[in-house]
Write a structure and sequence with these properties.
Belongs to the class-I aminoacyl-tRNA synthetase family. This is methionine--tRNA ligase. This protein has 31 helices and 39 strands. With 1134 residues, it is of the alpha+beta class. Among the domains are: 191 residues, Medium-chain alcohol dehydrogenases, catalytic domain (Quinone Oxidoreductase, Chain A, domain 1), CATH 3.90.180; 248 residues, 3-Layer(aba) Sandwich (Rossmann fold); 64 residues, no CATH class; 171 residues, Isoleucyl-tRNA Synthetase, Domain 1. Strands 11, 12, 13, 16, 17, 20, 21 and 22 form an eight-stranded antiparallel β-sheet that branches. A five-stranded parallel β-sheet has the order 25-24-23-36-37, sandwiched between helices. Strand 36, helix 20 and strand 37 form a beta-alpha-beta unit. The longest helix is centred in the C-terminal third of the chain and has 42 residues.
């Protein structure tokens, strides 16, 4: 390239991406070998393409220089030198105009990803790599900082600790790795030993410190690229310590930190190797899955304890570069770096990035470091960043694979802590560092004059795994409404996240032996993975421990304080004399005064279920507690209370707490409630519960607690008395909706105000909140009261849609007793997520207003009561009957007929004018469509499903009444075309209205229709949306039959010990009954014999020992032992 010319670097692997650019084909110089390993461009030369070469057929994310590149070669020495110079610290310009170094701060860990370029191209495919690092140093690593390179923003985050293994360990005879046994079980990892190839003179043994997780790892273990030599450990972004070097190794010394990429061997003697194109060597071997020719040993990758590699593919890592930052550079980084260097990117050159994903982001960094000028193609509008951890284990690797495989949120993982993983698995600190990043081109903001919809779901508490009641109670219901609103053309955002502060988190962390932050990262990842499997369409799934949360909570508190709505009270609380701190109720344990249970908590007894006080109340009244309000009062207390932390007997001690004066806010709160609940048509339970609170009298409610994990009370307002206190979780939890929205709209910009367009804009925004009935009072009373008390113009809730409880097979969900299906278990059934969504929504525990005497065609077996019952039988019936035989049959029959008889093309249905039958059919569909829209707007989702199935049933009736078959096609082709055309357009309507409930099925229907999967829900059915001549897709089954035998199998598997206990009880009762009959029979026999003996001898008494024998038999524990009835579980739906 000449000075002043532009080099455009592209990173993508999807054909549609390239077609948008008008790049239809590609050329390859004659004699060039097939580019079967194009995914790894480290150390190779790109041929001089004139067009772009999308290797989507290979499935490899890739990169290629685009433009009049001359393709000059770069020597290995020069390439290595440039790489070292680059990794050692290229320069950038930060937002202050000062220059800084790239990646030289030992703590500076930073990741981000994006999905759309400034050219408004399609999103970057999810299989791309995502990773980057922070630029420059932060003066305060506890705060997020924004830096800028041209028009691209980078958000910095605090680092994670890096564990560097000790090389002074006994030398292993075999290596150990997490291997997959086959494509069918690609998400199941097993820790196994394996043989390494014989050690050679040029070999280096590396004890692995960390390894990046790449999407090609997923493609490999899943079998996407053909058969693999299982069992196999993948991973090719490896960093570790050289613990053994061969006698002829010259590039690396023992003890040095080094890295290995995707390739581990080539002949180094062929033309390609001598031209620095080792990747094209016909004998090249990959880091994993390759067979070493001399020994037959299969190479194993970086999900292992060690790797053995030829020195040529081992690179020293500069001391200033953290291992987990360097690892992804060994694949994704070099994929971008190689074409930049080979095409002379540097001073005087312009570089444009098309599609800034993981590779594209590296392209931006490297091009800047090389001194090139960036074109506007690299501009990005918005970035979001967070960091998480999950345990390193088979389950952790499964989670990582799933996250990389398919996600609306872009993932980058780098696994660390390998020494513990392979040598001391009992170490609870062993982790996979999960780098989860999300980006959007521009946040969705309200549009003046439109129906702007803000949807929130109750923030799930992260101290446990959610069960199906949690899923349907809030997040799934909210997702349905958000999808419906978007399809209606409304500017809509769906906000959710994990609620992480509070006593329950601290106690759970104590139980698991970790700090609260670690616990929350773990369960946040668990929740997010579950919700992604259910295809929930959050615009952001955030967290509450953020600076945005602290800022907004404290700001609301300050305004409440200034306006006189906060009061201070002295309370008596348990105080631990050993560690000198006040104890929250849950940190006190002891004997329940009501039932005698010895491990009762200070807030409630787990055995009898009664509410308790941690200390015996004083006889005099008037002593306030920090949680005094109109809620249920304790009925008992703890006898012999003890501190949960150290077992010490707590003292009674006076302390101060802050209270929100609900009494002073009563009048404006009641006025607002009456207006909002009527206009928004709140659910019955939401109105009833709120009114009950009001009727009992609103009293001041405690909003502070003696905890460490929470939003701190601002001491500049309250003084030092509150230095060790935080806000009560239910004061700040609902404010989490606001702070998570700010994370979405403003990112790391703490001064940003875009969030106020949603939350301080009541004239333009309607807020819909979805939750379980146990959370109503906080959303209908505490949060609105806090908003009113600030005297600011907040967006307050328009509609609360509260669900009742979902029960399980006649009982309650209970994780401790193994009863019920939990979010992380649904995948084990093999039932698709859409079928789960359908069933849960058909059983949504809502108070129904539907008239059962209506004329609907489809009648679902849905209870009319408030609480709902999960039944395996109904899950199977819903799939096999309602979905397969109704919806699936209609779609399959029409599209398959068009495929077989009409050349997979929409016929010209315009030749036949609609007769009275067809006109009436259209009218009936529109009646059901109108009911569907009304049901959805009223959040009556069960009735919405009825409307969908009624429209589908009308479609089946259309085919049946008109006898769609070969005879109709032959004898009345125009009428047949009209039937097919109308049916296809009806299927298109179904695809749109089904999308809120079953998004994957909806997309499949659109694909079979041959149209873009863009759901649109009109006021009236458009009967010609699918035009004549439209090519259809391939007809495929939407649903599969579930065998009836699965019902008992699942019932047993997900009832766990409780089901077995019930069966044992039933068997014991049957045995006792049988034994009682036998005893009665024997008793009668003995009496007869005694009577005979008495008659013979004149004696009237029965034989001695009979009664005592009976008593002994009756007292036999083997006969009499019957366990108690199942205790009622205290499990909520949200």
């Amino acid at each position: 390239m000449q000075r002043g010319q532009s080099l455009v670097f592209a990173a993508a692997d999807e054909p549609n991406f390239w077609s948008e650019l008008g790049c239809a084909g590609w050329s390859r110089p004659l004699g060039t070998p097939p580019l079967t390993t194009m995914g790894h461009l480290s150390g190779i030369m790109l041929p001089p393409f004139l067009d772009v070469c999308p290797f989507s057929a290979l499935g490899w994310p890739w990169a290629v220089a685009w433009g009049p590149a001359k393709g000059g070669r770069v020597s290995r020495k020069r390439l290595r030198g440039a790489r070292s110079q680059l990794l050692g610290g290229g320069s950038v310009v930060d937002e202050r105009g000062t220059r800084g170094k790239i990646g030289i701060e030992p703590w500076s860990l930073k990741y981000w990803a994006t999905c759309r370029s400034a050219l408004d191209l399609p999103p970057v495919p999810p299989s791309l790599f995502f990773f980057s690092f922070e630029i420059g140093a932060l003066s305060n690593p506890n705060h997020l900082t924004r830096l800028a390179i041209d028009q691209t923003s980078y958000c910095a985050v605090p680092p994670l600790p890096i564990h560097i293994p000790d090389a002074n360990m006994p030398y292993p005879e075999k290596f150990t790795g997490f291997q997959v046994k086959g494509a069918d079980t690609w998400q199941e990892f097993h820790k196994q030993e394996f043989d390494a190839k014989p050690f050679g003179d040029y070999d280096i043994d590396i004890k692995i410190e960390c390894c990046g997780v790449c999407s090609s790892d997923v493609h490999t273990v899943r079998g996407d690229w053909g058969a693999q030599p299982y069992p196999l450990a993948v991973g090719h972004e490896i960093v570790g310590k050289a613990i053994k070097v061969g006698s002829k190794v010259t590039t690396v010394k023992e003890g040095q930190r080094v890295g290995v990429g995707a390739q581990s061997w080539a002949c180094l003697d062929c033309k390609q190797c001598k031209n620095d194109n080792e990747t094209y060597c016909k004998d090249q071997l990959d880091t994993y899955g390759a067979t070493w020719p001399d020994s037959g040993v299969v190479s194993q990758g970086g999900y292992s304890s060690h790797v053995r590699t030829h020195q040529h593919w081992v690179f020293p890592i500069p001391d200033g570069l953290p291992s987990e930052v360097a690892a992804p550079m060994l694949c994704a980084g070099l994929t971008a770096y190689s074409p930049l260097v080979r095409n002379g990117a540097g001073p005087g050159k312009k570089v444009g990035i098309v599609g800034i994903g993981g590779i594209g982001h590296f392209g931006v960094l490297f091009a800047k470091a090389l001194g090139a000028e960036m074109l506007d193609l690299a501009a990005e509008k918005k970035l979001f960043t967070w960091v998480e951890k999950i345990p390193i284990s088979a389950e952790g690797l499964k989670t990582a694979m799933q996250g990389v495989e398919a996600s609306k949120v872009r993932y980058r993982y780098c696994m660390t802590g390998y020494e513990e993983a392979f040598e001391s698995l009992s170490n609870p600190s062993t982790t996979i560092t999960t780098l989860a990043v999300m980006a959007t081109a521009e946040p969705i903001l309200p549009v003046k004059g439109k129906n702007n919809v803000l949807v929130t779901s109750a923030l799930p508490y992260v101290n446990n795994t959610p069960h199906l009641g949690n899923v349907i109670g809030s997040v799934l219901s909210a997702d349905v409404f958000a999808r419906f609103s978007r399809a209606r053309g409304n500017p809509t955002i769906f906000i959710c996240g994990s609620d992480e502060y509070g006593t329950a988190t601290e106690t759970k962390a104590l139980e698991e032996g970790v700090d609260p932050e670690t616990l929350c990262r773990k369960y946040h990842a668990v929740h997010k993975g579950i919700y992604e499997w259910f295809n929930l369409s959050f615009d952001i799934f955030g967290r509450t421990p953020t600076e945005q949360q602290t800022e907004i909570v404290q700001d609301i508190f300050r305004k409440l304080w200034q306006n006189g709505y906060i009061e201070e009270r002295e309370t008596t609380q348990p105080f631990c004399p050993v560690h000198h701190s006040f104890l929250a109720d849950r940190f006190v344990e002891g004997e329940c005064s009501l039932c005698g249970y010895n491990d009762a908590r200070g807030d409630q007894c787990d055995k009898c279920g009664n509410l308790l006080d941690p200390l015996e109340p004083e006889p005099e009244a008037g002593n306030a507690k920090p949680d005094d309000d109109i809620a249920a009062k304790a009925t008992g207390w703890l006898i012999n209370p003890r501190c949960k932390l150290d077992g010490a007997k707590p003292d009674k001690k006076q302390t101060k707490h802050l209270f929100l004066r609900l009494d002073a806010l009563k009048e404006p709160l009641i006025d607002w409630f009456k207006k909002a609940s009527t206009e928004g048509a709140w659910s019955t339970s939401a109105q009833t519960i709120t009114q009950a609170w009001i009727d009992k009298g609103l009293k001041p409610r405690g909003i502070t607690r003696d905890l460490k994990w929470g939003v701190p009370v601002p001491r500049d307002v309250t003084g030092e008395d509150y230095a060790a206190k935080v806000f009560y979780v239910w004061f700040d939890a609902c404010i989490g909706y606001v702070s998570i929205t700010k994370n979405y709209t403003d990112g790391a910009d703490l001064a940003g105000k875009k969030w106020e367009q949603w939350w301080k804009n009541p004239d333009e925004v309607k807020l819909y909140q979805f939750l379980g009935k146990d959370n109503v009072q906080f959303h209908s009373t505490v949060f609105p009261a806090s908003q009113l008390g600030t005297n600011e113009n907040w967006t307050k809730v328009h509609k609360i849609s509260a669900t009742e409880y979902l029960n399980y097979e006649g009982g309650k969900f209970s994780k401790s007793r193994g009863v019920g299906v939990f979010g992380n278990q649904v995948q084990e059934t093999g039932v698709p997520s859409d079928v789960w969504r359908y069933y849960l929504l058909s059983r949504r525990p809502e108070v129904r207003s539907h008239d059962p005497s209506d004329n609907m065609i489809v009648v679902l077996t849905i209870s009319q009561t408030s609480d709902s019952e999960f039944m395996w039988q109904e899950l199977v019936d819903g799939n096999n009957n309602e979905l397969l035989k109704n919806l699936g049959n209609f779609c399959q029959r029409v599209i398959k007929f068009a495929q077989a008889k009409l050349d997979t093309t929409v016929p010209d249905y315009t030749k036949f004018s609609l007769n009275d039958y067809l006109k009436n059919h259209v009218k009936e569909v529109n009646v059901n469509l109108k009911e569907y829209i009304a049901n959805m707007e009223g959040t009556k989702f069960r009735d919405g499903l009825r409307s969908i199935l009624s429209i589908s049933a009308l479609g089946n009736k259309l085919l049946q009444d008109n006898k769609l078959d070969n005879k109709l096609l032959t004898e009345e082709p125009d009428r047949c075309a009209a039937i097919i055309g109308l049916a296809l357009n009806q299927i298109a309507l179904i695809a749109s209205i089904l999308n809120p409930y079953m998004p994957v099925t909806s997309k499949a229907i659109f694909e079979q229709l041959g149209v873009e999967p863009t759901p649109t829900i009109p006021d009236e059915w458009v009967t010609d949306a699918i035009k004549p001549g439209q090519k259809l897709g391939e007809a495929k089954h939407l649903f599969s039959q579930i065998p009836a035998s699965k019902i008992e199998e699942w019932r047993e598997a997900f009832g766990g010990e409780e089901v077995r206990k019930q069966k044992e009880e039933a068997a014991a009762k049957a045995a006792a009954k049988k034994a009682a009959k036998e005893r009665e029979k024997e008793k009668k026999r003995l009496k007869k014999e005694a009577a005979k003996a008495a008659a013979a001898s004149g004696a009237e008494a029965a034989p001695a020992g009979v009664e005592s024998g009976e008593k002994k038999s009756e007292a036999d524990p083997a006969i009499e032992a019957v366990t108690e009835a199942i205790a009622k579980a205290d499990v909520h739906t949200s």
